[in-house]
Amino acid sequence: MRVLGIDPGLTRCGVGVVDVEPNRRARLVDVIVLRSPTDAPIERRLARIADGLEAIFEEHRPHAVALERVFARSDVSTIMGTAQISGVSMLIAARRELPVALHTPSEVKAAITGYGRADKKQVGAMVARILGLEEVPKPADAADALALAICHAWRTGGVAGAAIRDASTGRGGEQDASGLTPAQRAWLAAERSAAVSGAARRVKE
C-alpha cells in the first residue's frame, strides 16, 4: 500500500510517501517540503504548492492520501493557510479518484509513539526508527507528513488485528517474547490509549 501524507501549510507543506508491506513494515519512498514565498499574492502561493503536489502525485501514484485534520487555533492566518492547502490537496486527490483520510495530530501521535500527547521530537524519532533512517527527516513538516502516511497505512491495514494473528502463528520479524514486532507493539499501545481516552529526495527551496 502506497500512502501520500500531507502536512498542509501555505508557507511550508510537508509531503511524505511511504510503502507499507503486507507484514506492516514501512519503507520511505520520498519526502519533501514544498514552499511558497510569503510576499507573493495568495493565488500565486496556492498555485505554487498545487503544482508541486501535482508533480508528486503524478510521479509516485499513491493508493491513498492522508491529511492532517484542520482544527481551531488562535492564529487565524495560520489556520486559513492550512485549510486552503488542505482543500487544494483534496481536490487533486479527488480528480485522481483517490481516497482521502483526515487524521488529528493526537491520532497520529498515538499511532506512531503510543502516546497521544507526544511532542514533535518524539514523533520524529519514531518516524526515523520505523522507516530505518539514520536521521530524523527535517524540517518537522517532513517528519509530520511521513507520520501521517504511516498512521493512515497502519489504521486502514488493520495492524492491531494482524499483530494478534502474527503472534499466534509465529509470523513477523524482529519479534520479542510477546511475539510482536516493535511496530505492532506501538500500534497496540496506541489502540489501548485511544480506547481509554528529504531523505529520498533533497528538499529544495
Quick overview of this protein structure:
The chain has seven helices and five strands; from the N terminus they run βββαβαβααααα. It has helices spanning 42-60, 76-95, 105-113, 120-131, 140-156, 159-169, 182-196; strands at 2-7, 12-20, 26-35, 64-68, 100-103. The protein has a five-stranded mixed β-sheet with strand order 3-2-1-4-5, with helices on both faces.
Provide structural commentary:
Helices cover 50% and strands 17% of the residues. The chain has 205 residues and is an alpha/beta fold. It has a 5-stranded mixed sheet, with helices on both faces. Mean pLDDT is 82; it is low at 158-180 and 190-205.
By DSSP (H or I, 4+ residues per run), the number of helices equals: 7
Total beta-strand segments: 5
Strand order of the largest sheet: 3-2-1-4-5
**Largest sheet geometry:** 5 strands, mixed
Residue share in β-strands: 15-25%
Task: Choose one word for the global shape.
Answer: globular
Helical content band? 40-55%
Structural class by secondary-structure content: alpha/beta
Low-confidence stretches: 158-180, 190-205
**Overall pLDDT level:** 82
Succession of helices and strands: EEEHEHEHHHHH
What is the radius of gyration computed over CA atoms, rounded to a whole number of angstroms? 17 Å
Taking the alpha carbons of the first and last residues, their distance comes to 29 Å
